[in-house]
């Protein structure tokens, strides 16, 4: 599993890490925003400017063209098997940088410095890398563990609140997969102060939940499906929104997905109705109002297209109680429609 450092002094942590890995030279991957807001405080002055690889920000740049550009710079600048790539940015940068590094010269090492909440609690840990291809998300990728992940929440001070909220949905998911105490702590957090030192401990706990799941199933053969909680319906909402040209954040879609999938948990596994209401209320208070992105029928079709859904309906990860996860729970169309009604 990843070597993860939680710190408020990322400049010191990166210096120590680079000393430890004993590399011939260092390359840094950033996007426009992480270059503007985060690079200076890392104090990587000794890295030659030609070794700083910048790509434009945004999901649509998580592409083969960007990877090709990264490989080209690495190659032209003489990167060797012993070089290290430091990925400084959100999940787009850690996914694409991890992928580029895992293939270049059959694999060079990389260090992740995630700078969004989503990347800190989710994307940068767990060893999945990837790019979008042929119109499909994460179609090409590798399992590749970074040498180290350096998590410093002071980077979050420049992150727009909408992005904070998106990453926070994954923290909520991790808490539901953990226990009631952790959930209570997460729901009491002040989302306007995620860059403060007190929030780092909550990030640490959230990452520990993901790390434990990944460790039990590093190559996603079974148990790692726990991390899909909220995502079956969440992904359908996200895909539908994209299809209709509506802007919706991944975390918002997952938050709505969690309401619906908790409802299915109540119906099928006896999850407590009171606890369901409490989480639903919290999501409704904190996330934008759910505007129906399409008819239930269309959303259902999208869920069915997922290759994991074979014969008995749609495959879900559901909860019997906080922390009691049941994978491979098949739900019928009627059950799913009833759950979608909880969103409006
Ligand atoms: N590998 C995995 O296991 C895994 C898990 C979850 C998500 N992901 C991937 O992560 C990606 C989403 O990550 P994301 O939400 O971090 O998106 P992102 O990388 O696009 O970052 C969101 C925005 O914030 C900007 N930004 C980054 N750091 C900033 C800072 N400190 N201040 C101001 N702006 C900053 C970025 O430039 C971008 O515009 C998706 O591609 C998703 O597929 C991967
Ligand atoms: Zn997610």
Order of helices and strands: EHEHHEHEHEHEEEHHHHHHHEEH
Name of the level-1 CATH class of the largest domain: Mainly Alpha
Summarize the main sheet.
6 strands, parallel
Taking pLDDT < 50 over at least 5 consecutive residues as the criterion, the unreliable ranges are: none
Bound molecules: nicotinamide-adenine-dinucleotide, zinc ion
Task: Specify the overall morphology.
Answer: globular
Superfamily (CATH H level) name of the largest domain: Dehydroquinate synthase-like - alpha domain
Question: What's the CATH topology name of the largest domain?
Answer: Dehydroquinate synthase-like, alpha domain
Q: What CATH architecture of the largest domain would you give?
A: Up-down Bundle
Structural class: alpha/beta
Radius of gyration: 20 Å
Question: Can you give a write-up of this model?
Answer:
The chain is of the alpha/beta class. The longest helix has 20 residues, at 197-216. The chain has 2 domains: 4-159, 3-Layer(aba) Sandwich (Rossmann fold), CATH 3.40.50; 162-343, Dehydroquinate synthase-like, alpha domain. The protein has helices at 10-21, 32-37, 39-42, 64-76, 91-103, 117-123, 161-178, 180-187, 197-216, 231-243, 250-269, 273-286, 296-305, 333-340; strands at residues 4-6, 26-31, 52-55, 84-89, 109-114, 131-133, 136-140, 148-151, 314-321, 324-331. The strands form 3 sheets. The protein has a 6-stranded parallel beta sheet, with helices on both faces. Strands 6-7 form a two-stranded antiparallel sheet. The model has no long low-confidence stretch (mean pLDDT 94).
